[in-house]
Amino acid sequence: MMDISLSRFSQVSPCPVSSEEATVQDFITLLKPGVMSLVVFTGYTGMMLAPGNLHPFLKFAALLAIALGSGGAGAINMWYDCDIDGLMKRTQKRPIPQGRIAPGDALAFGVILSLLSVLLMTLSANLFAAGLLAFSIFFYVIIYTVWLKRSTPYNIVIGGAAGAFPPMIGWVATGSSLSLEPWLLFAIIFLWTPPHFWALALNRSDDYHKAHIPMLPNVAGQLETRRQILLYALFLFIVSLMPYFFHFQGMIYGITAFILGILFLALAIKIFQKGLQGDCKKLFLFSILYLFLLFMGMLVN
User: Fold this and answer.
1) Does domain 24-177 have CATH number 1.10.357.140?
2) Which residues cross the membrane (predicted)?
């Protein structure tokens, strides 16, 4: 089915040289604050659900370490992808393609934040949590950004693991050992990531084609992507109910997961049947709300 050659999906052009003075907002943009907020929230959820305990000040420091790690990885990602970011409408106004931040400055910023995050996690929590945080940064930067993103249409499937680590990091930061519950939190985010990004990719396939990124719609086609979205939505629905059926969560979470899962599935079915751009956009936006409300349900429960 995937008979399109991947040889053309490679780095395409050099990054521009900085010609304008960067602002504080430009460096905040490098951190990918939208992604960071979800990373910190899911990490906080893992921390609060864990049976272990940590002083409130140390909890704050550990969450700050997760935020710094997320921001550092995001900055390195923007440094490496500055060539393709300049080709896509969604990303061409980022500070590096616009020439407001020099690529080398962005790289240094990202590396420093990443190192600080691991050091802070070591001091505030434990070596296991720091090691897991370091591995998540490595996974996002090297495995996803450098290796997978430009080489395989399943870049999001494998690379999505990077965004699934935060609740596990929060969990072990309290001194708790990895049990089934944090792995379920990992699995929920891991299964959530592909339909979330593929819904966006269906509407941005021209952008990805222009940047030579082998996203699933460009390689396998729209219909196969819509089918994969539906399959992952179904798997996500099943796995999201497991914390309730394994008695890790109570009725409040069970009802929340069921209702959110049905809504997610309904949108996925509409996309599979019709493939309308409006439905893809709805699923992309709803998926963000879905993840937030699902993890909020765990906290409320």
Assistant:
1) yes
2) 35-54, 60-80, 101-121, 127-147, 154-171, 183-202, 229-246, 252-271, 283-300
